[in-house]
Amino acid sequence: MYVGPFSNNWGTIYHVVISLPDPPENPINTRYPVNEIFQTIQGEGVFTGVPAIFLRLQGCPVGCPWCDTKHTWETNASDRVSAEHMLAKTEASAHWAELTADDILQLFKQQNFTAKHVVITGGEPAMFDLRPLAEVLESQGMRLQIETSGTFPIQTSAATWVTVSPKLDMPGGYLVRPDCMQRADEIKYPIAMQKHLDAFDKLLQSCPPRTDAIIALQPISQRPRATELAIEICQQRNWRLSVQLHKYLNIE
Ligand code: SF4
Which pLDDT score is estimated for 85? Predict the structure, then answer.
């Protein structure tokens, strides 16, 4: 914004330029494409065993061939449904509902969810500005965790627990970002064979995480050889093992 000109008693003319910050975004106006909301037990990583509300957002361009949520990749207008329809889904589908942070909180209350830990997953949740959502949920005493591929800038509250599960050399062509690796509280890496570990080592060298970040290896698809390798490496390096507890328990 430009204001002026002004002059003082000696006739000097001043031109004053004032630039104002953009008005803060109203959280009520930020909308998220929500594929799924459910309460369960966190089955992976540091919070394994913790009761959690899962909020799955629609949309991901990363293109991992083994992705088990391929139905979240595309956000087509023709798949948009009401919140009620989205909640009533009984099987995975590309249907999504557009919800604000306040709508999401209201649905948590309507569903009588009791968990205080909220896992935001996808799809790729870092495609969205999660700060308004964090503001609303944290004001209710909830803790956020996001699970991201590390390929989009992370926009969330300082208190959010960030789990980066780096996806390397995927068909979408997105690179893992050094700023995401630095923001990560936890780095969870799926592994099945030695070449996966070699690629991960290269990433740790080129994009080092914080020294206090927790590193966890997750055997792919509970395969015995993958599990054996992950256990061996975790013991050698004092890393953690993440075993996808929900798959052993056969829960969502
Ligand atoms: S980043 Fe996640 S959601 Fe996206 S394709 Fe890969 S596994 Fe699937």
Answer: 97
